[in-house]
Structures are given as C-alpha cells and as structure tokens.
C-alpha cells in the first residue's frame, strides 16, 4: 500500500502549483486553468481521504466538484469571450479600466 | 419529534426554483419586442410566496431533512427572510432597469432567483457539501449578473475579476473542506464538531479552518481578501451591486457562523484571533480606502468592506448576543446598502451617467425625494440615531464590550467616526452644492415599482432603528439555537429599544 | 512487507520509462547525425498532410464551436450522477426508507436537465447557421 501521505503531498503540491500559477500567469485562460488545477488537487485529496476513512462520501463530493467545475468552466469561458470581444486582449495587465 | 416532510423544509427554495425555471423557459417563447415586465412581476410573486413559506417555517419544529444535509431552525429562517426580502426589493427596483437595453431580461430575473436559492441553501445547510453547492449556485449566477451590461467593457471586466477571484476563493474553501474531511472523516458540521472536540489531529484541523476562513473571507470581502470588491462594484450594474453586496454576504456570514460556532466551537482560541485581525483590517482598510474615492460606487464598495469589519466584531464576541448582533447588523446593513445602490441606479440610469461625486452636486433641488431617501440611507450608514445603522452598531459594540474586547471596540468606534466624513461629504454634495443646470440629464420618470421598493427600504431602515424589537427577537431566537441557555445579556438588550424611543 | 521493499514494485515502470525516453532520444539523435541537412523552403514549410499549407495556424474559430463544446461538457457531466444512482438503485428503498424516493429524485433531476435542453433549443443555440454574421 502506498501510504496516504504520498497522495496528500501530491495534492498539496498540485494545489500550490495552482496558486502559484494563478498569481504569476498573465493570460486569463492560463489563470482559469490554474483554478481547475486547484480543484483537481482538492479532488485528489478527497479521494485519498475517502479511501483512508473507508467512506464513499468523499468520492461523492468529488462528483459534485467535477460537475460544478464544468458549470464554472461554461460560465467562465463565456465571460472570457465577453471580455475578449470588448477589449481584444486576454492579458490581465491590459484589462485595467478600473484601477486596482 | 413529529415527522415533517423533507420537502417542507426546503419549501422556499422549491418555490423560488420553480419560479426561476418558469421565467427561464417562458423567456425564449416571447417575441423579441414584448415587454418582459410580466416575467418580473411573476418573479416578484414567486418571491413573495417564498417569503411567506419561510415565515411559515417558523412554526415547524426545528429539525433536519434530506439525510442530515438541511436544518431548519430560527437561525435559518431569519436568513431566509432576509435574503427573500433583499431579492424582493432588488426585483422591485430593477423592474425597469434593463427595459429596452438588454435582450436577456427574462434571464436576469431567473438568475436573481437562482442566486437567492443558492444563498438560502447555504444558510440552512449543515453539511459542507450542501454549503459548497449553495455557494456555487449563488456565485455562478452572480458572476453573470455582474457582467450584465453587455456592451460595457467595464462590466465585462468586473465580471471576469469577480469570476476569477471568486473561483480562487472557492478552491481554497474546498481544500479546507477536504482537510476537514480528512481530519474528522465527515463533512457534516455536527460530526465535525464531535471530531474537533475529541482533540485529534489539531494541526490538520487548524489548517482546514484557515483555508475555509480564506474562502469565506473572499466571499464576505473582508480584508485582506477584499481586493476584488471596489473593481467589481464599480463595473457591475448598480441594482446588481445592491444585491450582491448584501445577500451573498449574509449567506456567507451564516455559513461562517455555522462553521466557527458549531463546527469549530471548541477551537475558538484559534479562530477568534484570526477574526480579530480580519475585523481590524477590514474596518481600517475599508474606511481609509473610502476616504480617497471620488467614484460613488467605489466609495460604497470600500464602505461595504468596512461594514464587513463591524460584522466580524460581533463574531469575535462569540456569545449568544454577539450572534444576535451579527444577524441584526446583516439585516440593517442590507436595508441601507440596497437602498443606496438603488438610488444610484435610478439617478445614473443604465448608462451609469452619474458615478462621480461631483455629478451629484445640488441634486437635492432636482430630485428632492430621491435625495431625501439617499440621505436617510447615508445617515444610517454613518450610524445616526433612529436609523438601522445606529442600532446595529450600538448592539454590535455593546456585545463586544460584554465579551471584553476593549481594543477592538475602540478601533471600531474610531473607524465609525472616520467613516462619517466620507458619507457626509456625499451628503453635502447633494444638499450644500449649487446645482449646475448645464449638467442636466433627463431621467425616465420613476416607476411605481421602484418607488415601492425605495419606500420599503426607507421604512425598513427607520423601523429597524426605532422599533427593532421584532427583528431583534427573531435574531435572538436564531442565536438561541446555538446557545440554548443564553444568559442575562439577552434580556438586558431587550430593554434597550425602549430607551431609544 | 516494509515500505522500501514495496517501492521495488515500481522498478519495471521506471525501466519502461527509461527505455521509452532512451529509444526516442536515440532515434532523434541518430537521424540528426546520420541524415544530411539540406533545407529548402518547401521542406521548412509547415507540414499539412501533404497539402499546401494555407492561412495562419493561429486563426480564430467561430464562437459557435465553443457553444457546442460547452453544451457537450454540461450535458456530458450530468451523466456522472446517473451511474452511481443506477449502481445502487436496488438498495435505495432500504436506505431511504421509501420505495420510490430514489426513482422520483432521479425523475426530478432528469426533469431539470430537460428544462435546460428545452431552453437552449428554444434560444436557437442548436441552430448552426441562424446568424451568418457570427460565422
């Protein structure tokens, strides 16, 4: 048996890569992909814990996360298209009509 | 306990969902030229039915349904009524906003309804899976609503910023849930409470709690997770901002209450300092940020960050009264903030013509009634006596003092004084400055629905400030579900409304 | 069995990876050293199945493709809930305490999916060429 900590380390690493990419990347699509990576890291953690506790509820949670991620992708990409149509760019540094 | 059909426990949600679905499928069946007002009125009726259903739920015995995912009690009913009320007023004031400007008016109502369904589910959920679903149902709808002025680049920008940072926050919340599941083997808040109380794996639980606090901190726009707020509020359509600056915050605060008070109640030594820091940071950053703003929507955005800070003060008290104060303050804040944004939406119209402070110079002469309503909302936001804001703040700070949070209360009071400055500056623009007739913009005459909505809000602000007993009692009943044997403090506060009269 | 011993199970996998990478690297290196480099304009052009390449590879697609892809993902993911439901359908009356609870719940779920389908149908999303301007 591979110990649960290995899965958790992988999950934490994926999540951290996602957070790092979210902060560093400049293209909206890449930022969006890093969010998906974070969600998948969460899924991995859930499955590992579900196996550890012998409980299906963790895996059910993963189903819901997947479905919600798909819904979020649909809406998010639609918003990205709306942004591109109005600004002709997907670089976050140029999407700055309002000062942060 | 008598068996209550599970469907009755989510009756308000069912009614709103059915209304939303009907509005959604009717919209494409109507021809492009037909007015969408009947759809709005139908949505209003559905909302009224949902509010009635939530009020009726008060008579149900408190209990759970759907395999321990939903719990109806006085606490959940309080927030259901609040969210229903915010939805009702938002529908009233936006009934005319998109007329002739957008081809997706029916969907606007449907999205508002769905978003409210999600928030209601959040407030009655005792299972983190349900919390997550409610959070996402409400968030995904509001992401779209923020970008609803389709031709506007600013609106699209607000939408994308809200979407990216909102999803980022959700991922953090989810990771917290996963760690919580790992530490306790359950995602049910009551089982988590047992797991936390047993004291096993405290490090993992602390990490889980921190992650969930980050996620919910984003949603309630508490500093240091507030960066998205000014931009999103500036770009989104004004009626939508009124809705999304109050209702999702109320729902997220309800979740925060359930998680911290019930789930992690025995780990209060960890989250109280965290919330303390968040409260101080939110109040200070919010008020200092608002001072420098010339754009009224940005100013109110920073003000909403500050108000999230006041709410967190009530949280930090960790007592029955603190909880009741937090509930009451959410309601008071909702009434005045929705009102302020509704007036801005009326005065600046769909094209957002009046967004700068100087655009409002002397408007009291041209719009005496709208300015008077705005004045009431602003005075309430300052916390002038006889308004909801005053009583809310008074209650929050007294309960914090009862819990011995002297430093926090001092910082809060200093901040309230600071905040008065920028609200009064807006007020003096309206009343003291000369009116420039050259700047004249002809507005469409106010619709009856809009006037009704504003009347309800003004009445709510005044009633909550002068005779708050009923709402207060409901808030205390909600608090009592957490602290069954709340002591003398609750009785003490009961007498205070009389002092104010 | 202790942990290090368990990890030895992965040695074949490691060897497989090394072999694959090594073979690929060897073939590329060998063709680089053995083959002759005579670049002409045609040879350096983008390879498009033997046809003459035309246009820019970074051209934009119509937003309609996105619509179809998105609808596919949404309706595809919805099936994820049906599989677990079907697997434990026979056990549902015992766990839920009601004979048809599971059945009605799935009917409600499918009903919502159908409502969504009805909506996109009536909105004209499924009609590919309704608005030629977008194509």
Walk me through the structure.
The complex is a heterotrimer of chains A (100), B (501) and C (135). Helix content of chain A is 78%, strand content 0%. Chain A is built from three helices and no strands. In chain A, helix 2 (28-53) runs antiparallel to helix 3. Chain B is mainly α. Chain B has one domain (7-500). Chain B has a two-stranded antiparallel sheet with strand order 1-2. The longest helix of chain B has 32 residues, at 153-184. The radius of gyration of chain B is 21 Å and the shape is globular. The two termini of chain B are 41 Å apart. Residues 485-501 of chain B have low confidence and may be disordered. The model of chain C has no long low-confidence stretch (mean pLDDT 83). Helix content of chain C is 60%, strand content 0%. Chain C has two domains: 3-44; 63-134. Chains in contact: A-B, A-C, B-C. At the A-C interface, helix 3 of A face helix 4 of C.
Brief overview:
The complex is a heterotrimer of chains A (100), B (501) and C (135). Chain A is mainly alpha-helical.
Could you state the oligomeric state of the chains shown? heterotrimer
Number of helices of chain C: 7
| Tally of domains of chain B | 1
Biggest interface, chains and residue tallies: A-B, 44 and 39 residues
User: In what range is the share of β-strand residues of chain B?
Assistant: under 5%
Structural class of chain C: mainly alpha
Structural class of chain B: mainly alpha
Total strand segments of chain B: 2
Spatial shape of chain B: globular
Uncertain ranges of chain B: 485-501
Shape of chain C: flat
Helix content of chain C: 55-70%
The portion of residues forming beta strands of chain C comes to under 5%
Q: Treating each run of at least 4 consecutive H or I residues as one helix, how many helices of chain B?
A: 22
Mean pLDDT of chain C: 83
Measured distance between first and last alpha carbons of chain C: 63 Å
For the largest beta sheet of chain B, what order do the strands appear in spatially?
Answer: 1-2
Sheet having the most strands of chain B:
2 strands, antiparallel
Q: What's the helical proportion of residues of chain B?
A: over 70%
What does the main sheet of chain C amount to? none
How many separate structural domains of chain C? 2
């Amino acid at each position: 048996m591979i110990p649960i900590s290995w899965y958790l380390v992988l999950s934490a690493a994926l999540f951290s890569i996602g957070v790092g990419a979210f902060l560093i990347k400049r293209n909206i699509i890449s930022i969006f992909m890093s969010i998906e990576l974070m969600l998948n890291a969460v899924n991995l953690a859930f499955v590992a814990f579900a196996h550890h506790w012998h409980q299906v509820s963790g895996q059910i949670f993963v189903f819901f996360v997947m479905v919600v991620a798909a819904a979020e992708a649909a809406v998010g990409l639609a918003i990205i298209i709306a942004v591109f149509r109005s600004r002709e760019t997907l670089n976050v540094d140029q999407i700055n009509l309002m000062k942060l | 306990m008598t068996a209550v059909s599970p469907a009755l426990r989510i009756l308000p949600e069912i009614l709103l969902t059915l209304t939303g679905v009907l509005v959604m499928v009717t919209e494409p069946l109507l021809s492009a030229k037909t007015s969408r007002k009947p759809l709005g009125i139908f949505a209003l009726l559905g909302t009224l039915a949902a509010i009635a259903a939530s009020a009726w739920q008060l008579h149900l015995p408190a209990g759970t349904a759907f395999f321990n995912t939903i719990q109806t009690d006085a606490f959940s009913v309080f927030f259901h009524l609040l969210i229903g009320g915010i939805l009702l007023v938002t529908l009233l004031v936006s009934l005319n906003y998109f007329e002739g400007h957008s081809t997706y008016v029916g969907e606007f109502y449907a999205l508002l309804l769905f978003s409210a369904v999600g928030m209601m589910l959040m407030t009655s959920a005792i299972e983190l899976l349900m919390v997550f679903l409610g959070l996402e149902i409400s968030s995904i709808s509001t992401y779209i609503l923020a970008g609803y002025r389709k031709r506007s680049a600013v609106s699209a920008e607000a939408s994308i910023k809200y979407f990216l940072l909102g999803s980022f926050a959700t991922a953090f919340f989810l990771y917290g849930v996963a760690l919580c599941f790992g530490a306790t083997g359950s995602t049910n808040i009551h089982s988590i409470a047992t797991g936390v109380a047993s004291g096993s794996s405290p490090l993992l639980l602390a990490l889980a709690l921190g992650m969930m606090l980050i996620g919910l901190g984003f949603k309630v726009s508490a500093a240091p997770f507030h960066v998205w707020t000014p931009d999103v509020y500036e770009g989104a359509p004004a009626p939508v901002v009124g809705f999304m600056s109050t209702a999702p915050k109320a729902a997220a605060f309800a979740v925060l209450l359930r998680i911290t008070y019930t789930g992690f109640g025995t780990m209060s030594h960890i989250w109280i300092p965290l919330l303390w820091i968040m409260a101080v940071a939110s109040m200070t950053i919010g008020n200092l940020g608002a001072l420098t703003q010339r754009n009224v929507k940005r100013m109110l955005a920073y003000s909403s960050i500050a108000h999230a800070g006041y709410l967190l003060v009530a949280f930090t008290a960790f007592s029955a009264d603190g909880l009741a104060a937090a509930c009451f303050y959410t309601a008071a804040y909702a009434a005045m903030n929705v009102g302020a944004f509704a007036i801005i939406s009326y005065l600046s119209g769909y094209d957002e013509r009046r967004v700068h402070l100087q655009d409002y110079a002397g408007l009291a002469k041209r719009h005496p009634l709208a300015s008077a309503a705005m004045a009431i909302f602003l005075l309430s936001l300052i916390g002038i006596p006889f308004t909801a804001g005053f009583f809310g703040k008074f209650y929050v700070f007294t309960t914090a003092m009862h819990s011995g949070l002297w430093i926090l209360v001092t910082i809060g009071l200093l901040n309230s004084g600071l905040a008065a400055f920028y609200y009064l500056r807006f007020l003096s623009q309206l009343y003291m400055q000369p009116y420039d007739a050259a700047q004249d913009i002809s507005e469409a005459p106010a619709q009856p629905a809009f006037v009704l909505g504003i009347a309800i809000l003004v009445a709510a602000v005044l009633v909550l400030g002068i005779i708050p007993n009923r709402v207060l009692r409901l808030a205390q009943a909600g608090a009592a579900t957490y602290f069954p044997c709340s002591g003398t403090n609750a009785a003490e506060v009961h007498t205070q409304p009389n002092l104010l009269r | 069995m202790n942990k290090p011993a368990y990890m030895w199970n992965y040695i074949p996998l490691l060897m497989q990876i090394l072999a694959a990478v090594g073979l690929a690297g060897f073939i590329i290196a060998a063709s680089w050293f053995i083959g002759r480099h005579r670049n002409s304009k045609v040879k350096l052009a983008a390879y498009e199945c033997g046809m003459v390449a035309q246009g820019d590879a970074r051209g934009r697609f119509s937003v309609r493709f996105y619509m179809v892809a998105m609808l596919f993902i949404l309706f595809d993911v919805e099936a994820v809930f049906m599989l677990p439901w079907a697997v434990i359908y026979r056990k549902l009356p015992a766990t839920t305490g009601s004979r048809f609870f599971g059945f009605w719940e799935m009917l409600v779920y499918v009903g919502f999916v159908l409502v969504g389908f009805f909506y996109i149908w009536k909105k004209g999303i499924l009609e590919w060429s309704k608005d030629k301007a977008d194509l």
